[in-house]
Write a structure and sequence with these properties.
This protein has a 4-stranded antiparallel sheet. Strands 2-3 form a two-stranded antiparallel ribbon. α2 packs parallel to α9 and α8 packs antiparallel against α9. The protein has 2 domains: 131 residues, no CATH class; 145 residues, no CATH class. The chain is an alpha+beta fold. Belongs to the patched family. This is PTHD3 protein. It is a multi-pass membrane protein. Keywords: Glycoprotein, Membrane, Transmembrane, Transmembrane helix. It comes from Aramus guarauna (Limpkin).
Length: 336
């Protein structure tokens, strides 16, 4: 028969509670202290969480919802090579703008005019609508912030000068995809040609208005793009085109849609939080008063909330950027 273990015996194959024993004593002392003087253990966490939660005042400054920053490596090779191109091949958007030399997609506003079903965007009525659309864009202050080459704004479409009635005869001699040394693959869409490549009709025409993004003009260009996105729906409604349908986008559209989706989803978090908390509490409900753990579940939910408040507030105090994906953290904590 095995001999009984001595309480002071060290860790061995026969004695495996060498870790449990000091932990048991530690928590026994903690429980005794909480039972003897509970208020410090209640008030101190609340005050500490309240103080750290004050870091949320920095939330508007710490938000980082940039798509490139969130979904690309911080020191990726592509970013390094792009910086190399920027240093050694600088652009001059005010005097010598060239779209193919841009190391990024640039700052631009794009519009696509699509002709009505069964019609061509090169037809007379559609051409007039496209010219009105171009005039409406330029009337919004585009000339002030446009990217320039040779002292004039970069052309939104190489075919734009040919849309006037006085030069429309040249449209009959267009060859797709290259006509007189000009590539039309990015200017026309839905093109139908004859056997020799001569353009018979085209369903869509694309206009791209590039803006300056070097130097102090970058901020003004961004404001113009924001105003463009805000005012363009009413402009199109006022113009009332019948021969074409117009869709528009800018270099800011993707980022704004990403931020818009984020803002539309956040209000739903309150509903999901409520459902998660309710499930966490109800799952601990028992018919037996002895086995019922509702108050324990409530304390666990409050503890998880204080942990989220304290940790997020501390990170904001430390200057850590806040991205919306971390809003899922409370679900993970409550799930534990």
């Amino acid at each position: 028969m095995a001999e009984p273990r001595r309480p002071a015996e060290g860790c061995s194959c026969r004695n495996t509670d060498c870790v449990e024993r000091p932990l048991r004593r530690l928590f026994e002392g903690l429980g005794t202290g909480v039972a003897a003087c509970p208020w410090p253990f209640v008030l101190v966490p609340l005050l500490l969480s309240g103080g750290l939660g004050a870091g949320f005042v920095f939330l508007p400054q710490r938000q980082a919802n940039d798509i490139e920053g969130q979904f690309t490596p911080t020191r990726g090779p592509a970013k390094t090579e792009r910086d190399f191109v920027r240093r050694h091949f600088p652009t001059n958007d005010s005097e010598r703008f060239s779209a193919p030399r841009l190391p990024t997609e640039g700052a631009y506003a794009g519009l696509i005019a699509v002709a009505a079903e069964g019609s061509s965007v090169l037809a007379r009525a559609a051409r007039h609508d496209v010219l009105q659309l171009d005039a409406a864009v330029r009337a919004g202050g585009y000339e002030r912030v446009c990217a320039r080459s040779g002292g004039v704004c970069a052309s939104a479409n190489p075919l734009l000068p040919l849309l006037n009635d006085s030069a429309a005869a040249a449209l009959e001699n267009l060859v797709f995809p290259v006509s007189d040394g000009i590539f039309l693959g990015a200017a026309l869409g839905g093109v139908q040609t004859d056997g020799g490549g001569r353009v018979l009709s085209a369903r869509a025409l694309k206009l791209v208005y590039y803006l300056r993004e070097d130097g102090p003009a970058a901020a003004e260009s961004q404001r113009w793009l924001e105003r463009f996105l805000r005012d363009m729906p009413s402009e199109l409604e006022a113009l009332g085109f019948t021969s074409i349908q117009v869709t528009y986008f800018t270099s800011l559209s993707r980022q704004q849609e990403f931020e818009g989706n984020t803002k539309s989803v956040i209000p739903l978090f309150s509903v999901t939080y409520f459902l998660t908390i309710t499930f966490s509490i109800v799952s601990c409900l028992r018919l037996s008063c002895i086995r019922n753990n509702v108050w324990l579940a409530c304390c666990g939910v409050v503890s998880a909330g204080l942990a989220v408040l304290s940790s997020f507030g501390l990170m904001l105090f430390c200057g850590v950027p806040f991205v919306v994906t971390v809003a899922n953290a409370p679900f993970l904590i409550l799930g534990k």
